[in-house]
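re the bet — no i am not wrong, look at it urself. input seq straight from the record:
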Amino acid sequence: MKMKFLSLILALVCVFSLILTGCGKPADNVAETTSGTTPTTDPTTVPPTEPSAPEFDPYTNKTWMEDGSFKILIVGNSFSNDVMEYVFDIASAAGVKDMVLGNLYIGNCNLATHLKNAREDNAAYTYYNNDFGAWIKESKFKLSDAVKSENWDFIAFQQAPQTCGMVDTYKDLEELRAIVEKDCANPKVEFIWHMTWACANDYTGKFFVDYQCDQETMYNAIINATKYGVFPNEKITRVVPNGTIMQNIRTSYWGDTICRDGLHLSLPYGRILGGIGIVAATVGIDYDTIDLSDLHEDEKFLQVALESVKNAMENPYQVTQSQITK
């Protein structure tokens, strides 16, 4: 009987000890990770505060108009080829009379490679330039030479498709921006972020597995990476929400067909849509009066494209259901 009583006392002491020290808390306090996604946080800790988004109004913030010319350079990859293709025509339709467009291209290029090229001043780019309505191509171009070539109003950066939803890969953005800034002739240049898009659900590329082969998962990862990888950079003044624009149009009658190969934007529809996003976020668009009929005769597509862009400009980091579903 005495032994049973002592055992009971010992058991109660053990239970009381566990309560005091935190019952069930993992001893190592190690978060699980999944390839291609942000590591999960310890459930016992408070998540970090979400950084504030850059605030801008393309209708009132028009320092680019001071010299009467709209000048934008994008440091990109094949996705920048997609969205820049029709910017000259769209900006012209928006009322811009004079412009210079620049696109520094390396296929599949990520921020880490752009930073390496900036540090080493490598002539690694194909440079596309457009100041009269047609693109001129130059090979073996340096990032520094492109930056110095014009008094750019906007210089845009973007991440590669594979890593656009991986916040840890955005660590090179601030150093890249700072190196580029040293070569800028325009002290009022705005550095902006081009938020790219999620793959089509039927995309078969190998990297899609990092996003569970799911479009919504990839889109949410892109939003998360933008918030935690871009927002903390105070000198990034605008975000071009093309990732949300593509998700918006996917809720319309257009469906999940805005990409030509599951990854790159369709010709010409996706490219027109991406170009509208660039112009809306920089010079601004009057959605009620802009006439894009010279770009395409499909009035219904142009209507849903403008709706998708307008909704994304109003709600850049969440999907808005289209009202044009049939």
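see?? The longest helix spans residues 2-21. told u. also Strands lie at 70-76, 99-105, 125-130, 136-141, 154-157, 190-194, 236-240. so pay up
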